[in-house]
Amino acid sequence: MAGVAPVPFSVFGKTAIVTGAGSGINLSFAELLLSHGCNVVFADLALRPEAQKVVDTYSPKTDGKPRAVFVKTNVIEWPQLQRMFEVADEEFGSVDIVCPGAGVYEPHWSNFWHPPGASTASKDAPDSGRYAILDICLTHPIRTTQLAIAAWLSPKPGQQKVSPTNPKRVVHVSSIAAQRSPLIAPLYGASKHAVSGFVRSLGDIDVLGIRVNGVAPGVIKTPLWTEHPEKLQVVDEKQDEWATPEEVAKAMLRLLEDDTMVGGTILEVGHNQTRIVQALNDPGPSGSGHTVSGLMNGYKEVFEWLGQEGWGKIRPSKL
Q1: Cβ contact 317:120 at 8 Å
Q2: Signal peptide: which range, if any (predicted)?
């Protein structure tokens, strides 16, 4: 591949798979792609009304216009991840962009502070050997990336193999939690550290024409926050500023199209600010859209849980 100059990348006329596109950041990204002439496979468990409206708007087959299709997808089920690619091939002929963006933010049902079998809030079974939050936020992005690379290196008949002159893109959704890890969300923080590390590890396959990079949002006003009162307790809307899903989506588009955003780049997004996160000696996130002033409320709650008698001990099963 040495000496082969990469061609400029535009999302126009391309096809993308976006997991978690039923709401929030990933919905904004999917909508932005469509507005730039890119077909989008919406992969999610369900579509919120605003997402359904977008899919309905872009679902008709109209010459010269991008289309949207919805594929019901549980991202922790690997066969359903494979199905996303099959649908994209069936509907559009190929896939050029993959965003494994679906995620959850330390819900009580899969939470370090609600251990499996020891908390009635946890849905993680003590004998399952897994945490659902890690399946969603870490394993699914890794597996989806594997599937994408495999599809591009060994394309189906009629599809062109990936190369610097036929480039492909993967964009991951990390978080500022990969740099500033709060006590209230250890598993989420661990998953985002891992996602950022995973992106950096794959930076050098850029030479094959496959660019893998990621966005690291700050505090973004999405249903992940606004519809979960236990999360909102750490936000004081009188003094804390949200960044918007649209700001993140624009950064994600930049990661796809901007030639300077080389493989392995992590682009941090706050309120009215975007910057590249350095692999070493990075100063860390600061400023608007990166801080929550009520964080101690969350810490207080964690220590209250830890103060409960028998924290972490598995409860006897009821026969």
Answers
A1: no
A2: none
